[in-house]
Amino acid sequence: MTNQRGFTLIELAIVLVIITILIGGLAMPLSAQIQARRIAETQRTLEQAHEAIIGYALTHQNAGQPYLPCPDTGGDGIEETRDGGGACPTAEGFYPWVSLGTAAQDAWGNRLRYRVTASFSNSNGFLNTDSGDIQVCSTSSCTVADVASNVPAVVVSYGSNGWGAQNVNGNTLKTPTSADELENINSDVKFVSRTPYKPADGSAAEQAKEFDDLVVWISDSLLRSRVCPAGGCP
Description:
By secondary structure, the protein is α+β, with helices and mostly antiparallel strands. The chain has helices spanning 9-59, 97-100, 118-121, 179-183, 204-207, 220-227; strands at 61-62, 65-66, 92-94, 113-116, 134-137, 148-151, 153-157, 190-192, 214-218. The strands form 3 sheets. The chain has a 4-stranded antiparallel beta sheet with strand order 3-4-7-9. It has a 3-stranded mixed beta sheet with strand order 6-5-8. Strands 1-2 form a two-stranded antiparallel ribbon. The longest helix has 51 residues, at 9-59.
């Protein structure tokens, strides 16, 4: 008679260890793939926002002089009402997704940030003599813009960590630890756009280098070539 022999506890333990190692090896690439998809989706959202802002200028003009949308400060996605002189109440706020008919948030569920030069969002329209006041740098310590200068408008996603962002539930997330990410939330005219960096560990030195923000901007030359192709706005 043949004896039937099952697995011993040691053999089962070895099998479980092997399965755990295999699953762990697969989980990391899968996580990286999900993150890559979210980054690509957010980049598409930012490009759509970029095009929507230009489209707004094509359809909003005063005696042939175009202007850009106001930021949204209430969180409802609608650009704020201008004052009697045509000026927006603020230069920076949320991207007005309802007014522009595009996505309400990035792929991580956070609102996009939007800043615009006052002379470009005034409903009297911008002129050839107007210049954007936004500067885009590769580091927060730059004294002269080395990525883009004299920018009329910029849109920002605070990336996968979302630090400094407001989510769709209206909650403001953790304040960034790196100077470059802090630069993108301090409501001034300087923004940072550079290669992402993920800290290698939890040390203060590594955390200070973290950066995953995604930034798009509308250059003065592109805006004028698209909105006033005949040779500039009045």
